[in-house]
Structure to design on (271 residues):
């Protein structure tokens, strides 16, 4: 009976992986297909869609905007998450549970509620919608994920290492900079990667707060109405998948270096 259950579980895992990754595998197939119709059989090999993608000024502008937003939001969210995670794991203060609950609230609130609320507040304050307003919104929704990752990193940190630094004459800032930050660096890298990924493919907040500045998700959404643009979108998706793999490899390399510095098992998971 256990062998039958094991085979059933393996079959389920195989079906799940096919369902999850088959669309990603199809992206490069149709990106290099010469036909404009997304269907089998493939008609031929071409790189014209990639050439059209790079020649499209609106797409390049949207990609630049999205990368700028994702980089800025991931750095800001991770910096704020470091402060919040450090405070929540090291200090006891009145109302800590309620404060942390409010900070983590964007993780469970519907994004359309957050987007509409931010839109009303920003317009009421007379703020012009732009890339900066999208960065604010993405920082707000990315910060809880960074806090969740970094709270685990700070909680698993041995406090005696900081105390040893104090005994050796380091100030609190010196001990934090020279001891604590290097030890939690794998968590910081994970927070940056998670925040960057969330921001890069976020649509609702960008749709509400970007104004007349296109972002990559809003641009892709606008092009889905034109069937002849679909192959170019496939080429763009292929480039984004390749970028994600590169970022994952870089993050894993940095994580292994951080774990090696801590003396941990380098084969552990990214998070």
């Amino acid at each position: 009976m256990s062998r039958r259950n094991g085979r059933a579980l393996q079959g389920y895992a195989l079906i799940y992986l096919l369902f999850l990754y088959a669309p990603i595998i199809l992206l490069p197939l149709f990106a290099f297909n010469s036909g404009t119709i997304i269907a089998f059989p493939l008609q031929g090999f071409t790189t014209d869609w990639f050439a059209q993608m790079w020649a499209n000024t609106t797409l390049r502008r949207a990609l630049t905007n999205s990368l700028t937003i994702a980089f800025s939001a991931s750095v800001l969210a991770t910096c704020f998450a470091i402060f919040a995670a450090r405070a929540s794991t090291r200090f006891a203060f009145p109302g800590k549970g309620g404060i942390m609950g409010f900070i983590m609230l964007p993780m469970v609130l519907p994004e359309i509620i957050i987007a509409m609320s931010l839109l009303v507040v920003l317009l009421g304050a007379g703020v012009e919608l732009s890339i900066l307003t999208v960065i604010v919104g993405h920082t707000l929704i990315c910060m809880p994920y960074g806090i969740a990752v970094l709270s685990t990193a700070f909680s698993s940190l041995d406090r005696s290492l900081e105390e040893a630094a104090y005994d050796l004459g380091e100030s609190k800032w010196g001990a934090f900079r020279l001891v604590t930050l290097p030890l939690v660096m794998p968590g910081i890298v994970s927070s940056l990667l998670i925040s960057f990924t969330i921001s890069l493919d976020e649509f609702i907040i960008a749709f509400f707060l970007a104004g007349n500045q296109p972002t990559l998700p809003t641009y892709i959404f606008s092009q889905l109405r034109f069937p002849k643009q679909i192959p170019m979108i496939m080429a763009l998706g292929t480039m984004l998948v390749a970028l994600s793999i590169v970022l994952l490899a870089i993050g894993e390399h940095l994580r292994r270096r951080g774990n090696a510095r801590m003396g941990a098992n380098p084969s552990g998971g990214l998070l």
Observations:
- The radius of gyration is 23 Å.
- Residues 57-90 form the longest helix (34 residues).
- Residues 248 and 261 are 20 Å apart (CA to CA).
